[in-house]
Every structure is written in structure tokens, then in C-alpha cells.
Amino acid sequence: MPLSFSPIESRTEWDEFVQNQPHYSFLHAWEWGVFNQRQGERVQRIGMYEDGELLGVALLLHVRAKRGKFLFCPHGPLVDWRDEARATAFVRHILALGRRAGAWFVRFSPLIPSDDLERQRPLHALGFRPAPIHMHAEETWLLDITPEENDLLMGCRKGTRNLIRRAAKDGVEVIQSEDVNDLEIFDQLYADTATRHHFVPYSLDYLRREFEAFHEQGRARLFFAYYQGQPISGAMILYYGRTAFYHHGASSSAFRKVPGNHALQWASILAAKRRGCTTYNFWGIAPEDNPDHPWKGLTFFKKGFGGYRIDYLHAHDRILSPLYWITYAFETARRRKRGF
Q1: Half-sphere exposure of 46 toward its Cβ, with a 13 Å CA cutoff?
Q2: Residue numbers in the chain where pLDDT is lower than 70
Q3: Where are the domains of the chain?
Q4: Exposed, middle or buried by CB within 10 Å (0-12, 13-18, 19+), for 310?
Q5: Using CA atoms, how far apart are residues 151 and 145, in angstroms rounded to an integer?
Q6: May I ask the CATH class of domain 4-136+313-338?
Q7: CA distances from 310 to 111, 138, 284, 307 (A)
Q8: Do 23 and 76 meet the contact criterion of CB atoms below 8 Å apart?
Q9: What's the gap between Cα 289 and its chain centre?
Q10: Contact, 200 vs 191, CB < 8 A?
Q11: 110, 123 in Cβ contact below 8 A?
Q12: Which CATH number fits domain 139-311: 2.60.120.40, 3.60.150.10, 3.30.720.10, 3.40.630.30?
């Protein structure tokens, strides 16, 4: 039978497929679509079938922004890219959806390892080109959390290990929260962090919608490190499949010498392990070829807990309209301003 394409209405069917892929992230979770719908965006969940078997999925976001109108697939599509015929057919279907929607271009941020040229072949053959900016984490740091707790601790860099122990001696306490109202505590720390590191933070409404979308399925937690009765660092952890994702983090400028972030990360790693997760994803880190990258210090911090690096293919665009070059110019200027 020929391949067929249709919307997926079943969360269970979606999750079972996504979570059985060799590479996946919460950006292709059902909840990420829910979150974007609550942000006012149009969302499509498309499946590719053959003889009733699901062979590929794509979460498609219809983006209408000042910089342009495009169809975006975050950390996807998820398909066997080695099967060029099926992968090509799936991508062509998505391109047709983009044309039908009047998109200027279609953008993928696929979870294809950057050194896997075989899996990249269908995209290049169909005319995709590197996007002027990255959309989500492409260089990532992960930790296998299946070893015993003491082995995980010994796998940390010596300095990190000492700071985890020092935080305990200094009375740093880490608490978990499922209360959406505690996002106001996080938001205060987040605003402090944004001022210190010169970036534009997500709004409290944005953070609330993201947290609620995942928390409704028991897939989100807030962690806070307290010192002398005050919150000094915070994190939003999302759980999808057997992976815990450190997506948002923040800290106070007033207690920068207190290792609250180290205590918080260690506590969230152990909590993920107790939950049954096998991997802790620290999310984005700096590229290896850019020693002056703004994330240099954050990367050093994340690597201190041990783990390994996976670099994914940079976001790629397939141009559908000459108007694409407006977006290209806008995003190129933004990238240079940010120093990436």
C-alpha cells in the first residue's frame, strides 16, 4: 500500500512513537503542542503511515512573527532518515502543507547527529539550507543517571563534587514544588539572571503556560535552592519518556558565592533517577569551536556533573517564497547582536 498522511488525534499513539525514537526531546511532546496552542499558534500533528503502521511524526507550528511567516518543526520531524524514499515523501508532504498555508519557508530543527551525513542526505537533496539562527538546543550535554548515587557523585569533576558537599555543609536546602504560583519566585530569580547576563527573559505568562501544559500530565517540577531562608536559585525540569530536561534556570546575584546551583542540579538529578529516568539532559551548551561564546561559563558548570556531548544538525530552511530573504536578513542581524 502507498504511504498515507493524516493528523494524529491520539496522545497515546503519539507518545509511544516519539519515546521509542533513538533521539527525541520534549519539544516533540504532545504537551509542547498544547503549550503553543495556548500561546495562540496553530499547531498540526501529522503522521505518516504504511499498512496502518506509524512510520513518522511531525509537530508543526505555524509561526507568524514580525520576522516572517513560516512552518516550524522543533526537534523534528521524527522519521527513519536512513530510509530515503519514505523520509523524502514525508518531507515533501510537509512542504506541501507549508505552501498551502502560505508560508515563506519551512524550518526543521531535526535531531540528526551533526556528523551523520547519511541521515542528512534527504534534506540536502530536497534543497534545505542552514538557517541563519538556531531555534533550540543543538549542542547538548547529557548524563546517564543509571549508575548508583555514589558512582554518579564520583563521576563529577572534583571541584563540582566539593561544591555539592560544601552546599550541604553550608545549610543550602533544595525543595521541589508543583505549585504553579511558585513560578513567581522563579520569575524574580529569572529577571535577576537576565539583567546580569544581558538577555531578554521569557514572560511569566509564557513560563506559566509551559509549566501548566506539562504539569497537567505530571511532567513538570520546580526546584529551588534556599540559603538562610531565601531562594537563591531555581530550575524548571520537564520529564518526557525516560529523560529529565533542565530547560529553564535562574539564580540570585546576592548569593553568587554560595553553591546553590550545584546543590539544585544534584538534587534534581537524584529526583529524576528516583522517578525512573535514565538520562538527564542539561540542554544547550556552547559550540566547541567558539571559546568566546556567551555560554562558556554555563557550559563549564554543566560539564562538571559528568556526561557526554551530542551535537545535532543545525536548523535548516527550505525556501518557499522570495520573502524568505526578509527573515534571513532580520535573523542574521539578531544573531550578530547576540554574539553567537
Answers
A1: 27
A2: 1, 338-340
A3: 4-136+313-338, 139-311
A4: middle
A5: 10
A6: alpha beta
A7: 10, 8, 10, 10
A8: no
A9: 21
A10: no
A11: yes
A12: 3.40.630.30
Question: What is the model's pLDDT at position 339?
Answer: 59
Cis peptide, bond prior to residue 77, ω within 30 of zero: yes
Measure the CA angle with vertex 312, ends 124 and 69; round to 5°.
Answer: 65
Residue 1 confidence (pLDDT): 63
The letter for the amino acid at 85 is A
* Portion of the chain with pLDDT greater than 70, in percent: 99
Per-residue HEC secondary structure of 32-97 comes to: HHHHHHHCCCEEEEEEEEECCEEEEEEEEEEEEECCEEEEEECCCCEECCCCHHHHHHHHHHHHHH
Asked whether the domain spanning 139-311 has the same topology as the one spanning 4-136+313-338, the reply is yes
Amino acid identity at 113: P
Other CB atoms within a 10 A radius of the CB of residue 102 amount to 12
Beta strands 129-130; 105-108: pairing state: unpaired
* In the block, residue with C-alpha cell 551533526: 114
- What backbone torsions phi and psi does residue 271 show, to the nearest 5 degrees? -65, -40
Amino acid 332 reads T
Q: Read off the DSSP letter of residue 6.
A: E
* Cα–Cα distance for residue pair 328/131, rounded to 1 Å: 8
Helix (H, G, I), strand (E, B) or coil at 102: coil
Nearest to 94 by CA among 140, 44, 130, 135: 44
For residue 24, the number of C-alpha atoms closer than 13 Å in the C-beta half-sphere is: 27
